[in-house]
Amino acid sequence: MSERERRNSRWGLDEECRSMLQGALNNVPLSGPTRSESYGDTASSSGDAAGSPSVDGIRFPPAEILDIALEMYLYYFHPTLPIIHIPTFSAKNAPRPLLLCMCLIGLSILGTAGAAKFVSRTFPPVLQIALTELQSLSSTNHPPHRQMRIIATSLLALNLASITGRKSRIAQAEKMYSELIAVASNLGLFSANEGAKVDALLDEVVDIEAKWKAWSKIECTKRYIHHPSSRPKPAPTHILTPLRIIFGLIEADCWWAGYLSTSPMIRPETVQLLPPSDYTLYHVNSAQKWLHLIQRGSRIHSAKITPSFHPTPGLKLDASSFRSLLTLLLLRIYESNDRLASASAAATMNNSHSQKQLEPWRIYAEDARSRDILPLLVNLSSSSIDALRTADLNSAVLWHASCMILGANMRYFELAAGRSGPEPAVNALEDISAWSQTPSARRSVLHAAHIFKLLFDRKVSDIVNPHSVVALFHAALVLGLYIFTLPPPPPNTNMNGTNGMGGDPCIELLDLVDWQLVGQFGFLDTSPSCPHTSTTTTPSPTSSSAAVVRFIRTGGPFSITGITLEGGYLAARRTLLHCADLMEGMGRWKSRTFSQILHIMSDDLTDYGGDDDDEDGDEEMGCRGMAMG
């Protein structure tokens, strides 16, 4: 991109580029139902319901607005899915379908009424463009860089559907989701076993200069795919990062599995990823410097990441590997939830089995394919404890969210929030009342509180991804409904959180916890007859974690931000409103919708078990059902 272009627009998005985007939209092939039949969101959501004009009637915003939208994308969305190389990116030379998706995501983040209306009207034809390109992969022998670009475009279209939270928009993108994951699987993107064993080939190279150059080419392939420009230029016009695209596909599969309450399309046992090697090692500019770093301990071979990866004790995972492993474990959790749900549903007449449904780890423990998920997840807090404290915000949130949903079946909480209407909400709340008396519940509440703490304490520069927003919503449900269903405290409990007979002190849920010492406590059967109880390390009485373990085991008084909370409506309402306010501050993804749900819940928790003929209550429940799928 020339200096002249950068003076007019940092990204090169000028009137000529705007005209190219307008032309790409005008030439979209119309197929399937008409816009008035399927493309409009609800009238209340965007103001442009069934009477939308044709594609030819859509006029793009001025180039200045599109340039701002592109900035919104690159500043706020790109850090969550870094699939392009910003220093070499030029909007003018970027593929039009890719740029269209980037601009729509940016306009969605911008969030003005005009931007929202434009996105609502433009999303269907842009989705059609991306889907047509994706379907061409099955009939055309595209070069690898074009294959990855098409997949990246489809991935952005999927993310645009999910981050806005519009039910109709997500429904339109469901076909894209299924075809995209199928295409990526057929191309072998999720298996590092496809192809030559590069480690063995590198070991055979004796000459250091040749070995360094060969290794660099391999690492380049992991990090970037260079796209040749249509015009002669000395440098590529933009670069895609294939590993981040693959991680983005896995994250998208997790999101859709959660939204649709189905199994992920990707089979977890088939996933094998080879992350990039050491960043410093990659950026040295000579073979001798490269060799020097290797002699000082840098590794030229990165460990293959699988959903059953056991980190070596003491090994500190880099941020990318840590997040990748967490995402793969979440993929396994969603697969196990769906596979085991149908089997457990047949036994719900048995009260003990119903209890197991409320605490998913209990069902996992009896399943050969799932029983190692819990120790793998907890092991990350011991082998990579530094990573939890210093990793990027979203990875830390993901770890807590994964632990939380092992102890709390989120389907019950979504039902209690009104996903399927008033009557299932009342029934789910009764089940949650029983769950709230268990160690699993108290362990899950601790993780939920730490999700709140991480997002509340985030820095201005921290970018919150859509998955963390969903985690905060689930954390709010766990915290709020746990507090709501708690029985009242004993009458002799003092305000300082201890009772007159020397009861347990009040525990602050937001205090730091040494999860390495807590281990699997709360997710294990602690009865004397359980043979594997001893696998959990019990902190000493003087340990700072002793109070945490005591709370998990027996319960007791607790506080949030120093305020001691008792069970019941008032404390639950306070908690839900705090979470809702935090969501509104994050405000770019689906957080506005989730915040509205929490506000509604804070107002009508006292109505559970009341008269089902309340029309306003039915309408509110319906809104929540639409928002959560």
From TrEMBL:
Instruction: Write out the ranges of the annotated region (Disordered).
Output: 25-55, 608-629
Q: Where in the cell is it found?
A: Nucleus
CDD domains assigned to the protein according to its UniProt record, in alphabetical order? fungal_TF_MHR
Q: Which GO terms describe its molecular function?
A: DNA-binding transcription factor activity, RNA polymerase II-specific; RNA polymerase II cis-regulatory region sequence-specific DNA binding; zinc ion binding
Membrane-crossing residue ranges in chain numbering: 98-119
Record InterPro entries: VerF-like, XnlR_reg_dom
User: Where does the record place Acidic residues bias?
Assistant: 608-620
Any idea where the Xylanolytic transcriptional activator regulatory domain is? 70-223
Q: Name one GO cellular component term.
A: nucleus
**Where are the compositionally biased (Low complexity) regions?**
39-55
Which key words tag this protein in UniProt?
Answer: Membrane, Metal-binding, Nucleus, Repeat, Transmembrane, Transmembrane helix, Zinc, Zinc-finger
Polar residues composition bias: residue spans: 25-37
Q: Name one GO biological process term.
A: DNA-templated transcription
Tell me the protein's name.
Xylanolytic transcriptional activator regulatory domain-containing protein
